[in-house]
Amino acid sequence: MPQLQKKLTLYGLTMIAIGSCIGSGIFVTPAKIVAYLPHHGWVLLVWVIGGLIALTGALTFAELGALFPKAGGVYVFLKEAYGNLVGFLYGWVILLVINTGALAALSLAFADYMTFFLPNIGQTGKLALAIGTIAILTLVNLIGVNISQLLSNTFTGLKLLAILAIIGLGLYFYEPTELSLELSLSKDPPDQLVSHLLLALIGVLFSFGGWHHASYLAGEAVDAPRTVPKAMVLGAVVVTVTYLLVNIAYMLLLPLESIAGTEHVAGDAVGSVIHYGGQIVSVAIAISIFGTIGIYTMSAPRIYFAMARDGIFFPQLARLHPRYRTPVWAMLVQGGWSIVLLLFWGTFHDLITYVTFADVAFMMLGGISVLVFRAKRPHAERSYKVWGYPLVPLVFIGISAAFVLNTLWQEPLHALVALGVLCLGIPVYIWFERKGRGHKKT
Fold first, then answer.
1. Mean pLDDT of 371-396
2. Which candidate in 207, 344, 383, 435 could, as Cys together with 66 as Cys, close a disulfide (CB 3.0–4.6 Å)?
3. Of the candidates 217, 219, 206, which has an alpha carbon nearest to the alpha carbon of residue 363?
């Protein structure tokens, strides 16, 4: 049977973890976050909470990655902890909701930023550009994991340089006499503070989502038990520091009411001190989003591939390209469904709420699985054990649970649609399981 090629290095996997997080979120979600929390200190605190979730999650999932260094990542962890049904439902929701919804949202954001250069493109043109971007990057990633790694390294490096430039401009051009930062959390706390913090976390967690994509590619990593955990933790740390600094830069260049009132905060911030700054930043953001779409079209299909090889998904998705050794049908199906979601939802905020609720719910289950494996497999070989056990996993699980419950209460439509898709997966799983038993009997 053809096998995946093990060519991904620690550097490559870390860049995938970073590049999966830093896409459009940090550039388009600050307006919504400031609208919920119109205070410098509380805005920075919610980003710190997001970083805490990412870091505690990465430390927790690092132990899982060391225990199960296989293609599929989180799918494998959940299947081993809770059985085939839960593993299948994760892959099912990744395909129908999480990764494809993120791809749709990212491609919409990419098309929106390209309007700086194509001002007369119109809504139909933006939709066509978003669809074309998903299709082209899916085809590029079919060529092989080396091409995918090169694409990820290049675009992630470029986006980090662009963000460092924004941070540098904020520090250089800051005028304390014109803008002052109010960081005291005791002064004028927002109404309904806890609820607004949790609602602001939708955009924050969407922006942080992706560090675990390194685990999906464990089957193609060099020395996976060591490189996969390190890549996830390094990725979470770099992204947390980057997000805090770039939010401070926005605040040093723009008043909060301006941040809350713009869909292009990075462009407006740089444009406030540099002529044509908006256009310059648009290039950087377009590069950032394009690179993240490239990573997403590459990483998640390894889950559908692993599910098909386990006999609980369409067998065609387990087929590798005879020359490039990539899961060709898994990648094409994902790209096709992303385009369907793009046509169905059509707005960025709807897409990220729908995506983030389902993603965090399953990541919470993944965090709980560390406790399960410590009980079920206490003597299993682990090249990495989560630091601060059990406190670190419990922090990740607790904050994730609060977010899931609040989203279900405050944004019921998006949460219930995601739950509906999840429930539809149960009869599909039963069908695959019966079909698999039938094949074994014959």
1. 89
2. 383
3. 206
Query: Peptide bond before 390: cis, by omega within 30 degrees of 0?
Result: yes
Contact 116, 354 (CB under 8 A): no
The tokens describing 372, both together, are 């399960």
Q: Please name which of 362, 321, 349, 277 lies closest in space to residue 91, comparing C-alpha atoms.
A: 362
Three-class SS state of 221: strand
Q: Give Cβ neighbours of residue 201 (< 8 Å, ≥ 6 apart).
A: 46, 49, 50, 403
**Sign of the four-CA dihedral 115, 25, 294, 242:** positive
| CA 5 – CA 308 distance, rounded (Å) | 18
Residue 324, CA distances (Å) to 111, 291, 319 in order: 30, 21, 11
Quote the CA–CA distance of 139 and 93 in Å, as a whole number: 23
- C-alpha 145/C-alpha 142 separation (Å) is 8
Distance CA 96, CA 78 (A): 18
CB 155 within 8 A of CB 315: no
Other CB atoms within 10 Å distance of the CB of residue 1: 5
- In the prediction, which pLDDT does 349 show? 57
The strand pairing partners of 8, in sequence order, are: 221
Distance, CA of 166 to CA of 156 (rounded, Å):
16
Can you state the angle between helices 193-208 and 224-253, rounded to 10 degrees? 120
CA 343 – CA 347 distance, rounded (Å): 10
> Measured between alpha carbons, how far apart are the two ends of the chain, in Å?
21
DSSP state of 389: T
Report whether 265 contacts 30 (CB < 8 A). Answer: yes
DSSP state of 8: B
38 Cβ contact list (under 8 Å, min separation 6): 190, 256, 257, 260
Confidence of residue 442 (pLDDT cuts 50, 70, 90): very low
Q: Whole-angstrom Cα distance, residue 383 to residue 67? A: 7
Two structure tokens written together for 192: 């309904």
Interatomic CA distance for residues 262 and 28, integer angstroms: 9
Please say whether the beta carbons of 279 and 272 come within 8 A: no
pLDDT of residue 80: 92
CA distance 65 to 216: 9
Give the angle 46-65-425 at the CA atoms, nearest 5°.
80
Give the pLDDT mean for 104-128: 83
- Whole-Å CA distances, 241 to 67, 86, 248, 250, 364: 28, 34, 11, 15, 23
